[in-house]
Specification:
By secondary structure, the protein is α+β, with helices and mostly antiparallel strands. The chain has one domain: Rossmann fold, CATH 3.40.50.300. Strands 1-2-3 form a three-stranded antiparallel β-sheet, covered by helices on one side. The chain is elongated, with a radius of gyration of 20 Å. It starts with a helix and ends with a helix.
């Protein structure tokens, strides 16, 4: 009966590990959502991340125009409906958010500034 006890112990350890992983994943997702909103707010945008773990998908919605003027004109857009500059900025925000969530010790980025207008726009504010 020793084998049955060992199997029971392994099953319990596995279930415990899965439970802790689910809690840890939820914590990472919550923190990533807050971090994404923080980065977008630097430019006056609002946005949300939606993690779909069942389908291994990530959905994001960004509100760019009229974010501070009231909800009457505000409109949330998915990534495909954003303009070039909005998409670039949102992508950088997402990238920085994911880097923060994963905690990679090495970060490398090719062609960070895709447009000189992004630099000019950020220096005006």
């Amino acid at each position: 009966m020793r084998g049955k006890d060992d199997l029971q112990a392994l099953e319990e350890a596995y279930e415990n590990r899965c439970s802790k992983w689910t809690d840890f994943r939820a914590h990472i997702c919550h923190r990533a959502k807050m971090q994404f909103a923080f980065y977008l707010a630097n430019r006056g945008f609002h946005g949300k991340l939606k993690f779909d773990h069942d389908h291994t998908a990530l959905h994001l919605a960004v509100q760019t125009d009229a974010a501070d003027k009231g909800a009457s004109k505000a409109k949330r857009k998915d990534a495909s409906a954003l303009s070039g500059g909005e998409k670039s900025f949102s992508t950088i925000c997402l990238l920085l958010t994911m880097w923060e969530a994963v905690g990679c010790p090495l970060r490398c980025l090719d062609e960070f500034v895709s447009s000189p207008f992004l630099i000019l726009d950020s220096t005006r504010n």
